[in-house]
Amino acid sequence: MSTFIAAFVVLLLFFLLMSIGYLVKQKAVAGSCGGLGSLGIEKACDCDDPCDKRKAKMAEEDARREKLNKDRII
Fold first, then answer.
1. Which residue stretches of 26-51 are H helix?
2. What is the mean pLDDT of residues 6-19?
3. Exposed, middle or buried: residue 7 (CB in 10 Å: 0-12, 13-18, 19+)?
């Protein structure tokens, strides 16, 4: 039983440290290898046409990029 309690305390300690790290840096936990993006794959499915949610996200990114280019000072 003492092993279980020790493991539980260690797990809680890691969660506490991760929470403090998030609060300090305001950066979410991310993978280190890059996932599908490092393989040159832009989407997770093999569809020829992205879904509506993805299309909306892409349109939003394009609009944001255009606005940034339009409002650029330098």
1. none
2. 94
3. exposed
